[in-house]
Design goal:
By secondary structure, the chain is of the alpha/beta class. It folds into two domains: 206 residues, P-loop containing nucleotide triphosphate hydrolases (Rossmann fold); 151 residues, Rossmann fold (3-Layer(aba) Sandwich), CATH 3.40.50.300. The chain is 32% helix and 15% strand. The protein contains 14 helices and 16 strands. Strands 3-4-2-5-6-1-7 form a seven-stranded parallel beta sheet, with helices on both faces. A seven-stranded parallel beta sheet has the order 10-11-9-12-13-8-14, sandwiched between helices. Strands 15-16 form a two-stranded antiparallel sheet. Strand 3, helix 5 and strand 4 form a beta-alpha-beta unit. Helix 2 packs parallel to helix 3. The longest helix has 14 residues. It is globular.
């Protein structure tokens, strides 16, 4: 099957051809015809399998057959994403595939000035790609009207729920017309996603191109058991010995990302850190420098798990395992994209053994373990539960952060006796709270307790 058989117009096919694509991926083969039939869909696919093109291509095609919004501050299509980086990535795809079409699009998110965004909206756009917080800000200031939106896309819907956007989403849904088309895309499914789909989608088509919550076969996975205090030494050893040129490294915390980046620099390995406390300009520069090879290593918190799209990224390293098993799937999904081969390495200390077991249970596989000579684990070191050091998920309490928390859903091992002493900030990063009820500003720059059901403004 080729793209020419999917019912896309010549301007879109020309844009696709210029990118060197001829054959649609499995999710594109299934989703595009259904979307063109104007049906709602619930689509699940591994990261790196072409989900973005799976909804942008048919969305652009549908717009060619529809009447455009008559008022300049009205839009025809709305795409919601959980993070700024992902919004920018989707915006690039819309621009790329729609380059020969007359439609205008824009990306809006927090962390940058709102007035330039208002100016663009005043000139009139057809498609808005947005994070929920800034979208609501613009609507409240009468800069945007979504009452005539014909197609709504929720991209990485599970991440939006995970980050506490459910109340923002409900507010946005209440402003949309009831006869719209809804497209819900997610790399993982959970009970919360099913509940959201039940209330949002009308007789949807279900698309699953692989068993849910699985990792790509294009990605080889390894675990290196190592003492916590020697992780940095081992990481430097692996990068230098194997001559890795481009490595995405994940930490659990912002402070940890900054610290590791400085340590790598001192080891002679150029690096940059990206996380929620960085300004949008700094985040954009770090990504650009990483993509063009100016820096060898990008140290990131989970903010980057859904926002980095590099076709040939060869290596992902979990310097620290995520305490939410689904995040592991998204992290390693940054490599092995677009049919390329990738490698995912995890440095696992004794404190993280339970996290590793949870990941293997979720993905239904046993990950190969290799003990490197000179980095053998010290058997005298006792495990220190990470939940006691502020690393658990909001609502996770003493269950090592594995419960879904929040609105009562479950994806994994739920702890019935939840506590609210941990928060996730605007980028889904973990930070311990003294009272579980910190304030949240309009751009999501402060933490908030998910169990208090307070609104998260932006990512």
């Amino acid at each position: 099957m080729s793209f020419t058989t999917l019912g896309l117009c010549d301007p879109i096919l020309k844009a696709i051809e210029e990118q060197g694509y001829t054959t649609p991926t499995p999710v594109q083969k299934q989703a595009i015809p259904i979307i063109l039939e104007k049906r709602d869909i619930l689509a699940g696919a591994q990261t790196g399998t072409g989900k973005t093109a799976g909804f942008t291509l048919p969305l652009l095609e549908l717009l060619t057959h529809r009447k455009r919004a008559t008022k300049k501050h009205q839009i025809s299509a709305l795409i919601l994403t959980p993070t700024r980086e992902l919004a920018a990535q989707v915006g690039e795809s819309v621009e790329l595939y729609g380059k020969y079409l007359p439609f205008k699009s824009t990306v809006i998110f927090g962390g940058v000035g709102i007035n330039p965004q208002k100016s663009i909206l005043r000139k009139g756009v057809d498609i808005v790609i947005a994070t929920p917080g800034r979208l609501l800000d613009l609507i409240s200031q009468d800069a945007l009207d979504i009452s005539v939106v014909q197609t709504l896309v929720l991209d990485e819907a599970d991440r939006m729920l995970d980050m506490g956007f459910i109340h923002d989403i409900k507010k946005i849904l209440a402003m949309l017309p009831s006869n719209r088309q809804n497209l819900l895309f997610s790399a993982t499914f959970s009970a919360e996603i099913k509940r959201l789909a039940d209330g949002l989608l009308n007789n949807p088509a279900l698309i699953e191109v692989a068993r849910r919550n699985t990792t790509s076969e294009q990605v080889s996975q390894l675990v290196y058991p190592v003492d916590s205090g020697r992780k940095r030494e081992l990481l430097t050893h692996l990068i230098l010995k194997n001559d890795w040129k481009q490595v995405l490294v994940f930490t659990r915390t912002k402070h940890g990302a900054n610290k590791l980046s400085k340590q790598l620099d001192s080891d002679g390995i150029t690096s940059a850190a990206i996380h929620g406390n960085k300004s949008q300009g700094a985040r954009t520069k770090a990504l650009a420098d990483f993509k063009d090879g100016s820096v060898r290593v990008l140290v990131a918190t989970d903010i980057a798990a859904r926002g980095i799209d590099i076709d040939h990224l060869p290596h992902v390293v979990n310097f620290e395992l995520p305490n939410i098993s689904e995040d592991y799937v998204h992290r390693i999904g940054r490599t092995g994209r677009a049919g390329n081969i990738g490698e995912a390495v995890s440095l696992v200390c004794i404190d993280e053994i339970q996290y590793l077991k949870d990941i293997e249970k979720l993905t239904k596989q046993s990950i190969k373990k290799i003990i490197l000579d000179g980095f053998e684990v010290d058997p005298t070191i006792e495990a220190k539960p990470l939940s006691k050091r502020g690393q658990q998920r909001a609502g996770g309490g003493q269950n090592r952060g594995r419960g879904r928390g929040g609105n009562g859903g479950s994806a994994g091992n739920r702890n019935k006796n939840r506590s609210s002493n941990a928060n996730r900030n605007k980028d889904g990063e973990q930070k311990k709270s003294s009272n579980g009820n910190q304030r949240n500003n309009r751009d999501g720059n402060k933490n908030t307790s998910r169990n208090r059901n307070t609104r998260r403004r932006d990512a």
